[in-house]
Amino acid sequence: MRHRRRTWIPGLLLISPSLILLAVFVYGLIGWTVNLSLQDRHNARPAKGYVGLDNYTKLFTSDINDRFVHSLKNLVVFTLVFMVGTIVLGLIWALLLERRAKAEGFWRTIYLFPMAVSFVASGVVWRWLMNTGQGDSAGGINAIFHGLGLSFLESPWWTDPDWGMAAMAVPAIWQLSGYVMALFLAGFRGIPEELREAAVVDGATTFQLYRQVLFPQLTPTILSALIITGHMSMKMFDLIMSVSGAQWLTEVPAVYVWQTLLTRDYAKAAAISVFLLLIVAVVVVPYLIHVNRSEKRS
Amino acid sequence: MRLSRRVAAVAVAFGTMFATVACSSSEEPGEGSKKVEVFTWWADGGEKAGLDGLVGVFKTDCAGFEFLNGAVAGGAGSNAKQVLASRLQQNDPPDTFQAHAGAELSDYINDDQLEDLSAQYTEWGLTNAFPKGLIDNLTVDGKIYSVPANIHRANVLWSNKTVLAKAGITKDATTLDGFFADLDKLKASGVAAPLALGKDWTQQMLFEALLISKLGPEKFNGLWNGTTSWTGADITDAITTYKRLLTYTNKDRDTFDWTDAEKLLMDGKAAYQLMGDWEAADLDAKGFKDYGWSVFPGNGNTFQWLADSFVLPKGAKNADGTKCWLKTVGSATGQAAFNQKKGSIPARTDVGTDGFPAYQQAAMADWKTATQVPSCPHGSACAQTWQGAVGSAQGKFSSDGDVAALQKALASAAAEFGPKK
Fold it and tell me: Are residues B254 and A249, on separate chains, in Cβ contact within 8 Å?
């Protein structure tokens, strides 16, 4: 009995700093934010009282210009383009390298390297690359098109009112595709060599080998890639701030939180934050449960 | 065994770290009630130089007190505003803090956080030293809560003289029609986008200048105090004209800050830019001499002002010291020392123009005789929540040009954040 107590005390001691940190700075502050989002604190003054879910419903019913819905729409466009883009590019690169390409390590580094750059730094560069000037005042990529006589390819990039957010996803795709490639590559390498050999012995073509044998084994990898890119994209803030700054055209919920916070509408900022947390949780929590279960099974 | 000892050591180290964090507290000002903590976001550049000038005057005028610099740098004041909000919440106000004069103070006033300074205005003779229009804009329910240190003008149209000369424009337009005619001339002379413009808040500045021309100063003032309706046909007309004006501006305006638009003007790619008069100091600093200025066409002698001001918070530890600081801020010597360095003009009308650059001398002359109106993006006309909503609405209009939607958004913003009737 005594012996057993001794074994768990150091363990508890070891994790207690992080437990305390998490309790205070993550769960404590989430609780604080939820509490704030239920009050009517819309300026520097203290709240007068609780208003229930008003701050949440108002986001959808009476936000000027439907600003919040617009920011959600931007987020959906961004997320879809970003996720599809990274997964398609990542898969293509992984397939190329998986075919035992020469100097694989070199190419892997090249593709993976953009991930090492911070969103802020790449945002500043892409802001210049995606310069929206056209014709004689073109800059960045538009200037290249203009110089090559391909003026019809010049684009307003992120300033396009409908599809601007798709352009905004380009730098993010550039940064994260290499990471997704690494995930897929690890997935391919995790498939036992015997399976391939067996398929080849059975006379499967290369296409059949991938379609029937290898891809089905990659489902967990694709799921991980979707979850990781998806939750990154939903919280996207730094890239957008450094490419366009905070403004209507490219506003997503995270930027909207920042804007309302700066104008001291604390309750509204809290409500948007909690909403954002919830939609991320809807995606991430089932995944965590799934991972947990499959770990237990194995 | 060795491992668990190491673990314990780590745990202890963490614990100590926490304790240190918890115990270290901020330096307490106001000791012996001689120090006056002045909270600003003037931490560098011309603003810091201006503050230093003011402190110099304070040292001689208020020899019994000591200046304590409470400046919080960064983010154009946004960092400082966050720090200030939490300090006010904890009932630990600085002895005085910087804030845009006018409506931006309404949050603090409504929360009963500021002392009324009307008596001091009479005592220090500020009531007569400031123009009546400014006093009217500052007065809330018969009381005044702040002392402006400086004045900037928002409705100034800057121009590139060479580009204008090339298009054969020799005189500044004084009406909107004249302005449109000049813009057409410039287009004909090969300047594709003669009016340089930046993103949302700069668009709101341009729109307000146009509103002043369309409505006149009295009705314009009414937009912010609730006596003029945002839903009227005159506003629709103004927005339609504004939409036409946007066709003369650079298409990539939403990607520009005001300094990017300023560069178009300097490079001769644009002829005009509407911007506040901090542009004069900036153009001078960048060594560009070929600029001209006029009030926005049709604004007449309307002076759209914005100002930095200081207040006396309730519960300030050293109220006497703060009053002495405020007296210095409002004094002719204090205003001269501050504004010559910051590149703005004194709010007082009785400060000599000696030592001020050319633009400021002209602005000081205008200030005496002009009709004062406030500005929304700069806090003199509306509080911060209102500013945010208006800036976002302008950003949307810049991309979709939906006149009805802009008017509706502006009206809803006024209803939601404006003065309640």
Answer: yes
- The residues spanned by each domain of chain B are 32-151+306-358, 153-304+376-417
**Which ipTM value was assigned to this complex?**
0.83
- Domains of chain A, earliest start first: 51-297 (1.10.3720.10)
DSSP for B1-36 reads -HHHHHHHHHHHHHHHHHHHHHH--PPP--GGGTEE
Domains B32-151+306-358 and B153-304+376-417 share a fold: yes
Count chain A–chain B contacts defined by CB atoms under 8 A.
Answer: 100
Whether residues B395 and A259 touch (CB distance < 8 A) is answered with: no
Nearest CA of chain A to the CA of B415: how many Å?
Answer: 11
What are the Cα distances from residue B271, in Å, to A30, B154, B295? 52, 18, 15
Question: In this predicted model, what pLDDT tens digit does every residue of B277-316 receive, in sequence order?
Answer: 888 888 988 899 999 999 999 999 999 999 999 999 998 8
Contact B35/B68 with Cβ under 8 angstroms?
Answer: yes
pLDDT per residue over B191-230, tens digit each? 999 999 998 899 999 999 999 999 999 999 999 989 999 9
Q: Which of B393, B399, B412 sits opposite A249 (nearest CB)?
A: B399
Q: What is the DSSP letter of A26?
A: I
Chain B contacts in chain A segment 136-175 (CB below 8 A) = 137, 156, 159, 161
**Which residue among B255, B409, B416 places its CB closest to the CB of A65?**
B409
Provide, as residue numbers in chain A, all residues whose Cβ is less than 8 Å from the Cβ of B11. Answer: 13-14, 16-17
Contact (CB<8Å) A137/B269: yes
CATH class of B153-304+376-417: alpha beta
B293 forms beta bridges with B158
DSSP state of A213: I
- Residues A283, A60: Cα–Cα separation, whole Å: 21
Q: Which residue do the tokens 């020469």 mark?
A: A102
What is the least distance, in Å, from the CA of A174 to any CA of chain B?
Answer: 22
Residues in chain A within 8 Å Cβ distance of B395: 247-249
CA A42 to centroid of chain Cα atoms: 30
Among candidates A279, A272, A258, which has minimal Cα distance to A79?
A279
Read off the pTM. 0.85
Q: List chain B residues with CB under 8 Å of A70.
A: 396
In words, the CATH class of domain B32-151+306-358 is alpha beta
Closest of B381, B278, B337, B311 to residue B148, by C-alpha: B311
